[in-house]
Design a protein that fits this description.
Mean pLDDT: 87
CATH superfamily of the largest domain: P-loop containing nucleotide triphosphate hydrolases
Number of domains: 2
CATH topology of the largest domain: Rossmann fold
Strand order of the largest sheet: 2-3-1-4-5-6
Largest sheet: 6 strands, mixed
Number of strands: 9
Helix content: 25-40%
Structural class: alpha/beta
Distance between the termini: 32 Å
Order of helices and strands: EHEEHEHEHEHHEEHHEH
Strand content: 15-25%
């Protein structure tokens, strides 16, 4: 495509866990690119969501929430988020407008002050606030730094998303598209399938299970004779007690995970799926470098 007048670039979404970065990216792209749950630290990898129209292509880089890491996995997640800041054309700092300021907000905002890259502030979840509360939230978070732009938005309600896209476009360089116009993510299918399975685990389990879970797609093959895709996946946990919770009484929890995941995977792939799930214990996998590399959590 001719670059004349066309703009394209990369925008990193950063913020502390659970402020709605993945929900916002999905809403901006117009498709489900990243899994979304009520659990903090749902996003573990860098995920690209691609918005394209006749004037621009914006590649959103959804990063793990920046937090104080307690495991090697946590260290990896924070490094992924911080590394993205130096590889994009603009940074979108996403905050929860209804949440009080915390130490993480101040620390992250201080880190962003040193960037040469333009930093924009998106105050999310304003659909839950009154007009007066929204103004107070904008003032409260804008005071954290010298932001190029401040935009109140609601990822869930769709508030001001068109405005946010227009604002971001001003910070993109002129250039051609990086990806085909019908592409909304560059993530491999196996990665997307593993994430959809993990999404169900995060949504359905409680106690100590969610953050101890990793998913590995071991086999993914089309069975042409049956017009179905066979997927075998391992769900790793760190303790036998977590395995029992995840399987559930008479396999009820694992069955629920499989049913929810299969529906999402079939919607993604557009074909019928046979999902074969296995729960395995791998002690301290979040602190084991070899396992983290195997699961794709090492740079």
């Amino acid at each position: 495509m001719n670059a004349g007048g066309y703009r394209s670039g990369f925008v990193a979404l950063v913020g502390r866990p659970n402020v709605g970065k993945s929900t916002l990216m999905n809403a901006l792209v117009g498709d489900k690119v990243a899994i979304v749950t009520a659990r903090p630290q749902t996003t573990r990898n860098r995920i690209h969501g691609i918005f394209t129209d006749e004037r621009r292509q914006i590649v959103f880089v959804d990063t793990p929430g920046i937090h104080k890491p307690r495991t090697r996995l946590g260290i990896y997640m924070v490094e992924v988020a911080q590394r993205a800041l130096g590889e994009v054309d603009a940074v979108l700092y996403v905050v929860d407008g209804g949440a009080p300021l915390g130490a993480t907000d101040r620390r992250l905002a201080a880190n962003l002050k040193g960037l040469k890259t333009p930093v924009l502030l998106a105050v999310n979840k304003v659909d839950l606030l009154s007009r007066e509360q929204t103004v107070l939230a904008l003032d409260r978070y804008a005071a954290l730094g010298d932001f190029a732009e401040v935009v109140p938005v609601s990822a869930l309600a769709g508030t001001n998303l068109d405005t946010l896209l227009e604002v971001l476009t001003r910070y993109l360089p002129a250039g051609p598209q990086f990806y085909p116009p019908d592409m909304v993510t560059d993530q491999p299918e196996r990665f997307a399938v593993a994430e959809l399975i993990r999404e169900q685990v995060l949504s359905l389990t409680r106690e100590e299970v969610p953050h101890a879970v990793a998913v590995e797609v071991e086999e993914m093959a089309e069975r042409e004779a049956k017009n179905i895709v066979y997927i075998r996946a391992n769900i790793f946990v760190e303790k036998e007690s977590q395995k029992r919770i995840l399987i559930g009484k008479n396999g009820s929890m694992l069955k629920a995970v499989g049913q929810g995941a299969r529906a999402s995977i079939e919607a993604l792939l557009g074909v019928h799926v046979f999902l074969d799930l296995w729960v395995k214990v791998k002690e301290d996998w979040r602190d084991t470098e070899s396992t983290l590399r195997r699961l794709g959590y090492q740079a």
